[in-house]
Write a structure and sequence with these properties.
By secondary structure, this protein is an alpha/beta fold. It has one domain. The chain is built from six helices and eleven strands. The strands form three sheets. A seven-stranded mixed sheet has the order 1-9-8-2-5-3-4, with helices on both faces. A two-stranded parallel ribbon has the order 6-10. Strand 3, helix 3 and strand 4 form a beta-alpha-beta unit. The longest helix has 22 residues.
Length: 233
């Protein structure tokens, strides 16, 4: 008998139909469970700058990345459905891939900004409901520095003609499991215009986030291969 070969799911491509109400409800459950139920036992959580969230247009959400709590507290701060980019290596674990997929995350190659990533970003905004979430520093960094910023988030913003909402997160650089001893802060800055040079966008994001959470900003950019192919929006 011929054995059927199960087709491996492609987590890098997302159509408009992939961003469902069911996945948003799963996100809402995650926000209820983590930042509203579990974290308040260990952290006093403060959200600052919600008045800076645009209400009349799409935007890219761009937080610094210091722990696995970041997507949950970012979602609770913004209170909108967010499709986060995640490094493709996370999706190699079947259980984790299932959970990330359920939360409407999609995989991205951190070494190269691919055309499929831009197409997925376009489809996120075509929903007219979901926002795109990107961690410009890529992986988790706990050294209290804003450095080694990838260019991809700025390139996507220019491609999509979409402003960037900078978010600074601090307090969970080290996990606190002693009840009521931790303090976690999420600061939302004023949007950064896409209508400027690529390096200027990166520089503004780095300076703003560092200033909001008292980090050190190191002005340097990590090179990425930006595709030359133009994608029609």
């Amino acid at each position: 008998m011929e054995q059927k070969v199960q087709k491996k799911k492609n987590y890098t491509k997302r159509d408009v139909s992939d961003f469902t109400d069911g996945k948003y409800k799963f996100q809402l459950f995650g926000r209820w469970l983590v930042p509203r139920t579990i974290l308040p036992i260990f952290y006093k959580i403060e959200y600052i700058g919600r008045e800076n969230i645009p209400q009349d247009r799409n935007f890219i959400i761009a937080p610094n990345h210091i722990s696995y709590l970041d997507p949950f507290v970012t979602g609770e701060a913004i209170k909108k459905p967010i499709a986060f980019m995640g490094k493709k290596e996370l999706f190699e674990n079947k259980t984790l891939a299932f959970l990330l997929d359920g939360l409407a995350c999609f995989a991205v190659n951190r070494e190269k900004l691919e055309v499929s990533t831009i197409k997925t970003a376009i489809n996120v905004f075509k929903t007219n409901k979901w926002m795109l979430g990107i961690f410009p520093q890529g992986g988790i960094r706990r050294n209290r520095k804003i450095e080694k910023i990838n260019k991809g988030f700025a390139a996507i913003a220019k491609q999509m003609k979409t402003d960037i909402l900078p978010i600074g997160i601090t307090g969970s650089e080290k996990y606190n499991w002693i009840p009521f001893k931790g303090s976690l802060k999420v600061v939302i800055g004023e949007p950064i215009s896409y209508n400027q040079e690529l390096d200027d966008i990166i520089d503004e994001w780095g300076k703003k986030v560092a200033s909001m959470i008292n980090y050190t900003y190191v002005k340097e950019s990590e090179s990425e291969n930006i595709p030359n192919e133009k994608v029609n929006v």
